[in-house]
Amino acid sequence: MIGAGAVGENVADYATRGGLKVALVEAELVGGECSYWACMPSKALLMSSTALNAARAVGGAREAVTGELDVQAVLNRRDSFTSNWDDSSQAEWVAGAGIDLIRGHATITGVREVTVDGQVLTATHAVAAVTGSTALLPDVPGLRDARPWTSRDATSAKVIPQSLMIVGGGVVAAEMATAYQQLGAKVTLAARSGLLGGQEPFAGEFVRDALTDLGVDLRLGVSPTEVVRTEHDLVETTLSDGTTVITDEILVATGRLPRTDDLGLENVGIEPGDWLHVDDTLLVHGTDWLYGVGDVNHRALLTHQGKYQARAAGEVIAARALGKPLQTEPWGAHVATADHAAVPQVTFTSPEVASVGLTADAAQKQGIDVRVVDYDLAALAGSSLKSDVYKGQARIVVDESRKVLVGATFVGPEVSDLLHAATIAVVGEVPIDRLWHAVPSYPTVSEIWLRLLDAYGRP
Q: For the residues 325-335, what does the mean pLDDT come to?
């Protein structure tokens, strides 16, 4: 296994449990991007502000809040979640799972052959490339010389800058704008295509309004045309509308690239620097021994989805190696079917955005007979109890021909807690008439399920 992030660890674990001897190669920290530079530190940066805002939104608790956010305490708490970028405990877990850990840079030098800093390893059955992705830096004049931040710098910063320019409108950009503005930076965000593209349009609209209320300077519909690091160590960003923004730092969050450029893929006839194209068992097309799991295959760039793929890949590698029967039908044990139509995702802005499956637009483009049902989350008794200023919206996307949900989106405080029920409904293809019998507790925000079904009507 090349890459000992959360996904690589799980591929190795499932293959080991399946009866194989596994070596796990890592050039950086065991635990990877999610543990040290993405999921965990980013959410730690956001959570303190989220908790403070929640208290201020409830009468009685609001009056008890007498202080402001302790920024250094937030950074210290973030550091605790990354174990101060020390991977000792994760390396111990690998050893305890019976997996051999090899530290160094891995290069594929032949079929089933991997060379790690001069040491040649030959796999009996398979090699899995689980190398993840890295930040894309757009080709903007002066940008690279301006020493831009990527998501790694934003989540590991030791000091909050007075001002920050963020380029991009996706999850990383929206979350870091939320975090840094509340941690005391003056944030400007430039997003050529708006916010949270690919989500339901109302999700981006709610986040846009929330960021504006926080004081973020939103520049939507524009992009950088030139970036200069000045002699005073400031960043001067010229935008496509002719305006100029001067900040202490610039964070680029405009997409991801696969970490395959120095993997040695050219040695086995695969184009380096490209995403690995795989089938539903995560086997790279054109091979019978190379697997691509997690971000590197570009199916769903999410840790939880990568770990889901890892289970399927680890088990199918072991099954093929030992000649065991495969379950490769849709939703079988050895395939990653959910990657196609049931991917859950949470954006931890204020408000949160939680979604699973297809948007209405995506479903229509697939030729599905779509019916959309919307409901104002603020109208629920449970919402008004949770917050005196609750704002939110819910949407389900129904396949009318089959009377099942194919997508759901929730926007509002703590709506991530609603997501798994929606995921089960989509994955399980639970008929609408059966969902009527899943009674939500009152008064909770889960009552949204009853209200959505009421609005839909009896099938």
A: 96
